[in-house]
User: Which sequence fits this backbone?
């Protein structure tokens, strides 16, 4: 589990390409503090497992399904990436619940500056837009951001100066692809509202919530 607060920007040092998989060596500093083999680190919002590490590098293996479903396939030697260690139970929770399981790949369709903010419109498959609401949360390349606009084809985010400086999002341009993770709470609610084919009680509804005493 992650928060979407990027800790550090790392650099891809080497990539070993399999037929459908990747082994990536990344250079960094902060996220290696107290690291152990098997730890989870989000790389551009993708939860990956540390398979090896040294004083200033760590290695991850990317399986075929992850290569197919994320922008990992577009990484090159020298690529800069957002890094975040898994959240601590005793730490501050500054972003929102982020699983590190990317829902889809988005494409930046417009970029505009307004005073100290950069607005980005990101196009995604329309079937994912049902999870977006104004002022809701979204994770873009591992960065927790607020939704400032939703259409039937895209959503808009706004980057404050800190986000522009401390993550790779501010360096993105029109046509660039990004990893998008929708708010998991919205997905859980959708699942709960679906009809239960194995039960005669049917789906969760407002009437059922009232009957159960959750609503007046």
Assistant:
């Amino acid at each position: 589990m992650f928060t979407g607060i990027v800790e550090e920007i790392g650099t891809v040092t080497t990539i070993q390409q399999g037929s459908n998989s990747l082994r990536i060596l990344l250079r960094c500093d902060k996220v290696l503090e107290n690291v152990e083999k098997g730890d989870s680190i989000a790389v551009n919002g993708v939860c990956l497992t540390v398979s090896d590490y040294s004083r200033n590098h760590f290695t991850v293996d990317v399986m075929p399904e992850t290569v197919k479903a994320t922008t990992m396939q577009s990484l090159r030697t020298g690529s800069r990436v957002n890094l975040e260690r898994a959240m601590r139970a005793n730490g501050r929770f500054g972003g929102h619940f982020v699983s590190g399981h990317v829902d889809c790949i988005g494409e930046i369709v417009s970029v505009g500056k307004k005073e100290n903010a950069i607005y980005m419109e990101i196009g995604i498959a329309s079937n994912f837009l049902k999870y977006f609401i104004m002022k809701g949360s979204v994770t873009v390349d591992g960065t927790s951001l607020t939704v400032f606009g939703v259409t039937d084809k895209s959503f808009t985010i706004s980057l404050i100066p800190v986000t522009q400086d401390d993550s790779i999002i501010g360096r993105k341009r029109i046509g660039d692809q990004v990893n998008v993770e929708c708010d998991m709470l919205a997905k859980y609610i959708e699942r709960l509202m679906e009809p239960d084919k194995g039960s005669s009680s049917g789906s969760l509804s407002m009437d059922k919530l009232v009957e159960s005493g959750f609503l007046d």
About this structure: The longest strand covers residues 104-114. The radius of gyration is 19 Å.
